[in-house]
Amino acid sequence: MKQLVQLQKVYDEFEKRDIEVIAVSLEAAEMEQHAKTLKRFPNRRFKLAGALNWEGMDAWARTTGYLIDKTGVIRQVFPMETYNRPDWWSVLNEADRLLGK
Amino acid sequence: MILTFLAILAAGPPGSFDVSAHIPAEKLALETEYHFIVEVEADGEIDANFNPRNKPAPGSLRKPILQLDVPPSVQILDSYKPKDERKGAEDWLEFYFKKPYGRLIKQKSTQIPFKLVADPKPGETLGINVMTYLNGDEAKDRRFIRRRIDLPLKPGARLTGKDAQASSWGLDKKLGIGDKAPAFKLPAGDGTDLDMTAYLGKQPVFIQTYRADW
Questions:
Q1: Do the beta carbons of residue B16 and residue B150 sit within 8 Å?
Q2: For chain B, what is the mean pLDDT?
Q3: In this complex, do A77 and B104 lie within 8 Å of one another by their Cβ atoms?
């Protein structure tokens, strides 16, 4: 959950750029587990959702970030498998570069 | 001074990296093992063992990752898979190998064994993506960089990487750059649903998939 805590801290930066942030759990075997996550972030501003065993999410890779422009096209893919954590400032820098400030 | 300036321009910004790849074989027969070689050259340090708890050096590249878009005529051989004896590692490595990222580049030069299982179609290439994070001087000055090479399946083929903003991500048909993000509707866990049609195509979105213990 450390990564979600960090996301909470930099969320203002996403908001300044009018970027909606959505975290999707792909491996929550039960929705109770997802609900437990929600309880830990009662004041969160980013969106959370849970797919039950990847259902309907086959096209999305796990532990990966997707930067999507306002036309709905994916502009960058951040492979976070290796680190198991996103680098939020790299994401923001790429957002500035690809989507404009 | 002008020469110095030109030299800096030619070398690119500090910490940038270039990728080249080549097939050293003199011929490519079917069902025969060959290697292609991927080389990463960086102005800064390549930190293959990056630990986020350590302060990275400015300009260093953190754990460059290799991902392959493999055409139907090519089979990457199993010996490419890294060995890991840890419990449960087999499943993990199987996933790690197949899913988008291939594996880490632990050395500046990485050899990948492959064989041709069919004659390549004219113009068929092996897609090689190398991606990494570049550390800047401050926490906020970090960049994500990707280079791509579409290496022709010909003996002696040699190419240097380019910026890969439009590269595909086709190894296992996961979504990639340039794809239209499909809408989905998922439980938000609080009794409501998160419907992506409310966001996609209306404003920029960053979607982060994560594991339950992320």
A1: no
A2: 74
A3: no
Give the model confidence (pLDDT) of B95-116 as tens digits. Answer: 444 444 445 565 567 888 899 9
CA distances from B191 to A31, A32, A35, B176, B194 (A): 11, 12, 10, 31, 10
Minimum-distance CB partner of A50 among B173, B179, B189: B189
Contact at 8 Å (CB) between B32 and B103? no
Q: Which of B202, B167, B165, B211 is nearest to B183 (CA)?
A: B202
On whether ipTM exceeds 0.85, the answer is: yes
Is this model's pTM higher than 0.80 or not?
Answer: no
Mark yes or no for CB contact B177/A74 under 8 Å. yes
Nearest CA in chain A to B63: A82
Interface contact B5, partner A, CB < 8 A? no
Tell me how many degrees the CA angle A6-A53-B183 measures, rounded to the nearest 5.
75
Pairing label, strands B74-76, B109-116: antiparallel
